[in-house]
Predict the 3D structure of the following.
Amino acid sequence: MEKKRFFLFALVSIILIDLVSAQFGGFGSLSIRDFIENGIGVDNFIFMALFLIFFAFLFFVLGRIFRNSAGQTNKPVAGTIAFAMSALMTYFMYKTGFDISSLFFN
């Protein structure tokens, strides 16, 4: 219960940091939007999000395919293959110049 409370407090603190910075005229402003737009870039953020989505989906599917002799999921094999496949999928999208941001923005 204590970990959940700390995580909730940290999340709310990060979200509300702009309200605190606005009191001081925006000096030293820190926000998630500024970090994404100016720090890593919107396109890179979208590629990272797609990588995580691909990885989660492939890990789920491959976990159902690769089982050990006891019938349990063989997580190292499924994780390795899912990581490699999702990395290749994301790299292919990046190298072909697929304009992913046009799907979300004008």
The mean pLDDT is 79. The radius of gyration is 19 Å. The chain is about 75% helix and 0% strand. Residues 1-30 form one domain.
